[in-house]
Design a protein that fits this description.
Blueprint (H helix, E strand, L loop, with lengths): L5 E4 L2 E4 L3 E2 L10 H13 L4 E3 L8 H9 L7 E6 L1 E3 L7 E3 L3 H15 L4 E7 L17 H13 L3 E7 L3 H7 L6 E3 L10 H10 L2 E2 L19 H10 L3 H12 L12 H8 L10 H6 L15
Parallel strand pairs: 3-4, 4-5, 5-8, 8-9, 9-10, 10-11
Antiparallel strand pairs: 1-2, 6-7
Helix pairs in contact: 1-2, 3-4, 7-8
The structure holds NADP nicotinamide-adenine-dinucleotide phosphate.
NADP nicotinamide-adenine-dinucleotide phosphate binds next to β8 and α9.
Length: about 300
Amino acid sequence: MINTATARFAGRSVFRIGYGALQLHRLHDRRDEAVALLRRAVELGVNHVDTAEFYGSGFANAAIREALRPEDDVLIVTKVGADPDPGGPLPLRIAQRPEQLRASVEDNLRSLGLDRLPVVNLRRLDTGPGLRAEGVQIVDLDDQLATMTALRDEGKIGAIGLSGVTIDGLRRAIPAGVACVQNAYSLASRDDEDMLRLCAAEGIAWVPFFPLGGAGTGLPKVTEDSAVLAAAESLGVTPSQIGLAWLLHHAPNILLIPGTADPAHLEANMAVSEITLNGDLLPTLDAIESRSNNLPFGAAS
Ligand SMILES: NC(=O)c1ccc[n+]([C@@H]2O[C@H](COP(=O)([O-])OP(=O)(O)OC[C@H]3O[C@@H](n4cnc5c(N)ncnc54)[C@H](OP(=O)(O)O)[C@@H]3O)[C@@H](O)[C@H]2O)c1
């Protein structure tokens, strides 16, 4: 029986349902609401928040700094590999060079008001949705890991994660110590099943981004699958909740970071820990076909 409540991550126990801060940028003009949403998340039990300096060009980190207190004991996970590009088309730009990774760690330390970043994901561009590196931005993984491990040795980061990585890349990085992998993955989009299994065997947390298919990314939406809709109706819950509950049931090392700017959705996402997928429900959902082929480039990262 899988423990749907807590799991080990970066040397501590976290509630398996965390919060992803990407959608906070939609509250850019309503900072009080962003802060209140984060406070509500903590009240509901969130002790793992995923962010990046480039979410809302610093807005997400600023809101997190304002909302979270040391006594909340929230594990803040951020990422490097891209920098804010306010006014740009995405608005982020690739920043894969070792010196850019280091600078981005410093930026995150400053904006989050921390002496040490508990976990930092190295956002590679090797797989899944998003941009691809070109020219000088194509950097060997080993060179990046050398920078990340140096930053860990210096105490600026607590643990290293990987994102947008292939299974070969993950295998290369494991000797350096990997706390988590963050790739696009959901009930409707399951390309990385082998990597998920490797993570489980190695004690690495699997923290999928786009666990519901993302906001308008062009990826398959979990909530549009007929088997998900039927399961939701039979349990009297929402289709999003079924998608998240399936992830919790699928493997014990999966941690959730659904993104939302809506307090009601936050409540619904936290209530997923109460959902049990009994009887035929789990095999029926397992049988849903993965529809992740031909992931679009340029989708949000
Ligand atoms: N490593 C990476 O490259 C990377 C890339 C992308 C994202 N991420 C991280 O992963 C997190 C999750 O990804 P995401 O936020 O892009 O996508 P997601 O969690 O798959 O989906 C977010 C979308 O689902 C909606 N939603 C959330 N909860 C809902 C509910 N209970 N009922 C109905 N709709 C709901 C949100 O809208 P509302 O706001 O209206 O609820 C939003 O449109 C991000 O927040 C970010 O922290 C990492």
